[in-house]
Amino acid sequence: MAKGVGVGSPLCSIARRVARVCLMALVAFAPAAWAQAEWKPDRNVEFIIGATPGSQLDTIVRRAQAIWQEKGLVEAPVTPVNKAGGSQSIATAYLLNQRAGDGHYLEVFYPTLLSSYAIGNHNVDYSRATPLACLGSEYYVWAVRADSLIQSGKDLIARLSSDPGSLSMGTSNIGGIGHIQMLSVLKAGGVNVGKLKMVGFKGGSEARTALLGGHIDTNSTSGSNMLGDKQSGKIRVIAVNAPKRLGGAYADIPTWKELGVDAPVISGWTCVVGAQGLSQAQIAYWDRAFAALVKTDEWKSDAARRLRSLEYKNSSETRAFLKAEYQALQTLVKALGVVKPRKNSR
Predict the structure, then answer these.
(1) CA distance readout (Å), 342 to 87, 116, 117, 125, 282
(2) Fewer beta carbons within 10 Å, N or C terminal of the chain?
(3) Is 195 part of any domain?
(4) pTM check: above 0.85
(5) How far does Cα 62 stand from its chain's mean position?
(6) pLDDT tens digits for the chain (346 residues)?
(7) Is 132 inside a domain boundary?
(8) In a domain, 11, yes or no
(9) Contact, 253 vs 237, CB < 8 A?
(10) Euclidean distance between CA atoms 132 and 109, whole angstroms
(11) Which of 59, 77, 55, 60 is CA-nearest to residue 68?
C-alpha cells in the first residue's frame, strides 16, 4: 500500500469523517426530497365533461365526485364543468389551453373524441393530454319501435341490403363512435353504407325521442339509454354489438356475431385525461384516486345499474389503450371511406 494512505493514516481518517458528514447530509435531505416528490391538489379540481348535463358522461363524473367527496378520497373540492360540442373537442381544447403541468384539471370522454379526430371532424390533438384512467365500457344496442315491421337484426340487414335508403338510421354525432359502429356493422352485413339515410342528433336522448316519435326507423345507442323504453314495451331491441349477450333485461337479445354479422365489437368506453405534461407525482396521485374510486361498493353498484363494465385501467395502461384504440379507429374509418382532409392540428 502506498505511504500515507494506509487504514490508520491521517488521510484515511479525514476520508472517514467526510463520508460520515455526507451520509448525514443524505439522511437529512431524503425526507425533504420525498416530500417534494409527493403531490396533492391544493385548490378546486375541475372535472371537464364534453357533454350536456344529464348525459351519461355527466352522470359518471357526478357519481365519481360524490364518492370522492363522501369518502375523502380526494382532499380538494371537485367541480363538474360541462363543455359540450364539437364531438368533445371543445372540452379537450379547454383542457389543453394554457393548463400544461396543472394537475387540477381532468377531462372524461368517449371514443367519439378519437373517431372524430381520425375522420377529420376536428383538429384538437387529444394525444397532447396526459392519460390517467379508463373507467369501463358500455355496449351498443340496436332498436326499432315496438310497432315496426322489422322484427330482428336479420330483418334489418335484409331490408337495407336490398334498399339501403329505405330506412332512416338515427345516431348521435355524425362521425362519433356510435355512428362508426353502426356503419361497421352494416358494412359487415353486406349493406352499401354509402347509400344509407343517416340522421345525426346532438345526443343520445334526442335520437331516442326521434325514434319514439316515429321520425327515424331505427337507432343504436348504449344499453342504459334504451333500458327504460325496452322495459316499458315502447321499443324492440333487435341486436347488441357486444362480445357476448349483455344479460339482465337484454339476456334474450343476440349479438351481431350470433346473427352471422362478423363486425368489430366497438364499445363506448370512458377514459380520463389530465392536462399536458403532468408530473409523475401528479399522475401517481390520480392513479391512487381512481383506483380507490372503482373499488367502492357505490361505484360498482352504479356500474351494474347502468350496464357499464368494470374494466379499470391505470394511467400507464390507459396510455397504451388509447394509442391502440386510435390506430384501430384510423384503420376502420379509412375502410369505411369517411375520412376528410385535415386542417392544421392544434
Answers:
(1) 15, 11, 9, 11, 33
(2) N
(3) yes
(4) no
(5) 15
(6) 444 444 444 434 444 454 454 444 444 444 434 444 699 999 999 999 998 888 889 999 999 999 999 999 999 999 999 999 888 999 999 999 999 999 999 999 999 999 999 999 899 999 999 999 999 999 999 999 999 999 999 999 999 999 999 999 998 778 888 899 999 999 999 999 999 999 988 777 788 889 999 999 999 988 888 889 999 999 999 999 999 999 888 999 999 999 999 998 998 999 999 999 999 999 999 999 999 999 999 999 999 988 888 889 999 999 999 999 999 999 999 999 998 876 654 4
(7) yes
(8) no
(9) yes
(10) 12
(11) 77
CA dihedral 224, 226, 110, 40 (to 10 degrees): -30
Among residues 250, 283, 318, the one where a domain terminates is: 250
The three cell numbers locating residue 56: 351519461
Q: Indicate whether 346 belongs to any domain.
A: no
Q: Domain containing 179 — which CATH number?
A: 3.40.190.10
Counting every residue written for the chain, the total comes to: 346
